[in-house]
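Moderator note: this is an archived Q&A kept for reference. The question asked for a predicted structure of one protein chain; the sequence and the answer are reproduced below.
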Amino acid sequence: MDRFDVVIVGTGPAGLGAAFHLTARRPGLSVLVLDREKTSTGGLRNDCKMNFTYPVGFPLANWTREQAEHFLNLTIADLQPSILDKHNVSVYCRRAAKLGVDLLDIRQAHFGTDGGLRLIERLMTELAARGVHVRLEEEARAIRPVEQVLETSKGDYRYGDLVLAPGRHGSGFLQSVMESLQIPFVDHVVDIGIRVETTEAQYPIVRDYYDPKFFFPEQVRTFCTNSRRAYVSQERYEARNGQAYGSVNGHAYAEATRENGLVNFALLRTVMLTEPVASGQQFAEMLGLQAMLMGGGRPIMQRVGDFRLGKRSKAATFNGDLYHFRPSLDDCCPGDISMAVPAKILRGIWRAMKLLDTIVPGVLHPSTIMYYPEIKLYGNKPVFIDGCFQAKPHVYLVGDGAGTSRGITAAWASGIRAATGILGEPIL
C-alpha cells in the first residue's frame, strides 16, 4: 500500500491551492492529488471568473477581513490574474441605493472557459514539476481514520494528512464522510434560483462591470455574470437516491469564439431552513428532480413576456417578433417555471428582477429568458477543531462543498489555509 505525506481529494481550486502551498513551503513532501473525473475539475473550467475583494466568496462565519486579505494575497501570487477595468460603477451604485439595493465594487479577473483550460494546464504542469502525483478517474470511497487510510475505486492509500476538497458536486460524498467519521455538521442553507439570459443591449452594465454583484432584499443576489461570448450550460448532479437532475450554469469564452452579444447571470435566493427539515441538500435535490419531471428530463425555460402574461412558453415563442434571439441552451423544455419554483422563492426573485430593471433598464424585455433550476450546494457547515479547517485529527475539509468558500478565489484560499495547518504555520 502506497503512503503519502498528504493526500488531497479534488482537483478544483481548493485542492490545488493546498497542493501549491504545501509544495512551495516544503518541497520534500510526498503529495497525491486524485479526482474521480477525467480532467481537473471545479470552477476553473467554467468561465473562470475570480473575485478578489472581501467578503465576496468568504463565509463570514469562517473568515475575518484580515484573514481573507492575507490568504487572497497568497492566492494572487499563485494564480497571477489580470484585474479588469471598471467604469461608471458609482452611477449604478447611486441608482441601486435609492431602491435599497447594494452593488459591490469588486476587483475581478476573467480568464474565460478557454483561458481557464490554459490556466489549468499551467497549474498541473507546475505541480508535476514539483513531484506531485496526480491520479484522475479515481474516486474516493471511504476513510479508515484510525489506520489513516483512504479507500478509492482503484486501491488504498495511507496518508499523514488528508484534505477533502470535493467541491459542490461532491457535497453528498462529503456528507457521507462526515457521517461515517461522526463529524458534527449542519446542512440548512441552500441557494435556489434561475439563470437569466438576455442581450448586452438590454443589460448594458456588463460593458462597464463584467460581473456586477447586486444584493437585493429577501436574500436575493446576482451571481456569475457572463457576457460577450456567453453561453448557458447544463450540469449533471446525482441525488443521494441515485437519480440524476440537471442544474443550469453559465460560462463565456475569452477568445475562442466570436462575440454573440448575449449575457447570462444567476439570480439566487439564499434559503435558510429550520426544523423539521433535516437537510438543505436533500431539499434542493427534490426541487431539481421535480424540475426534471416538469421538463421531461430537461431544465425549464420561459420568456419574460410569457411569464408576465401568466402563460407557459412554447417552442414557437422562441422565434420571431419581439423574441429576437435564440436561447444559447436550446436543449431545455419551454414551459412555465412558476409550476416548479416554490412560490416564496419565485416572488423574491421576481421582485429583484423588477428592481434590477429600474437600475439597468431593459433586462425585463419580453425576449429575456429565465432558465430553471440553478442550484448551488455549498451549505455544509462542519464543526472544525481548529482554525485551519481540521474536522478530525489529520482530516481537513475545504472548498465550496465544505462551506468554507463560495467561488474560485476563496476556495483556493481555504486550501492554502488547510495547508498552513498541516505545515504548522500560524494563521492570523
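Archived answer notes: Residues 2-85+109-184+380-423 form a domain with the FAD/NAD(P)-binding domain fold (CATH 3.50.50.60).
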